[in-house]
UniProtKB/TrEMBL annotation:
Cited InterPro entries: DUF2243_membrane
Signal sequence annotation: none
Top-level lineage group: Bacteria
Presence of keyword Membrane: yes
Keywords recorded for this protein, A-Z: Membrane, Plasmid, Transmembrane, Transmembrane helix
Bilayer-crossing regions: 12-36, 56-75, 87-111, 123-144, 156-179
Lineage of producing organism: Bacteria, Pseudomonadati, Pseudomonadota, Alphaproteobacteria, Hyphomicrobiales
Name this protein carries in UniProt: DUF2243 domain-containing protein
Length: 259
């Protein structure tokens, strides 16, 4: 059970922020930039709509964890014994490593929903490499640094304030990066709910003066160029469930390759 005192909140803020950072790191680097895998690459991999939705909701879950961590960090600011900034760094490392350990064991080996590098002939090597470098190593370093303290209480207070600020900025920055669509392409990717009629889809596209650049075979996943000054949010009124660039964590949309 999570401790409710200020020091407990301080520790748990680090665990949650580190865990969220691990998810953002995975999503930004492996899903978007390198495109080595998506959340459910090993399941129904030919259905782009399925992959788009899964990645979008994955990022949404990471945002929930990040917000919880930031709230706990704020709530712990009046901890009576002013824990050191290095303690927060240690717990962030533990959380970051824990994400990769959980991802490796659960996603790669137990459930088999994806591997680190789906196109590799030796996926286990990549899994173990990632597991060691980004999972075990941060966990060990964080564990060794966990519980260390300073004698100079003024220095402790200053270090805690600085680390709090840097940790918050790092998580917010990573979250903002995950929200960003692919740079300089000018397109918006939209996933409409299953069963939405083509007439309603095109009414929605027309509502934002959009032009279709690409669509999948079902017509429910479309890439459009929206006229200047139009709001992407209007698409939700016409049956869209995910829209890149509309404040929803769907940055992976615009990084997906379709051919």
């Amino acid at each position: 059970m999570i401790r409710t005192d200020a020091n407990g909140r301080y520790r748990w803020s680090g665990y949650l922020l580190g865990f969220a950072l691990g998810g953002f790191f995975d999503g930004i680097l492996l899903h978007q930039i390198l495109q080595w895998h998506h959340l459910l690459s090993a399941i129904n991999s030919m259905d782009i709509r399925f992959q788009v939705a899964a990645d979008g909701y994955f990022h949404a879950f990471m945002y929930v964890i990040a917000v919880a961590g930031l709230w706990l960090l704020w709530a712990s600011r009046k901890a009576p014994d002013r824990p050191a900034g290095r303690l927060l760094l240690a717990t962030i490392l533990i959380g970051f490593g824990a994400w990769h350990v959980v991802d490796a064991v659960l996603s790669h080996w137990v459930l088999g929903i994806h591997r680190i590098r789906m196109d590799s002939g030796s996926p286990l090597i990549w899994d173990l490499l990632w597991f060691g470098i980004f999972g075990v190593m941060p966990l060990v370093i964080g564990w060794l640094r966990n519980g260390t303290d300073d004698d100079d209480r003024m220095q402790v207070s200053r270090s805690a304030t600085v680390v709090r600020l840097l940790a918050g900025l790092l998580v917010i920055g990573a979250g903002a990066q995950a929200l960003r669509p692919a740079p300089d392409n000018g397109f918006t990717t939209v996933l409409f709910a299953p069963g939405i009629s083509q007439e309603r889809i095109f009414r929605g596209i027309g509502a934002v003066d959009g032009r279709v650049a690409w669509t999948d075979g079902t017509g429910e996943l479309v890439v459009i160029r929206i006229a200047a000054g139009q709001s992407r949010h209007a698409l939700f009124r016409h049956g869209a469930i995910l829209v890149s660039g509309a404040g929803f964590p769907a940055g992976c949309f615009d990084y997906l390759t379709t051919g």
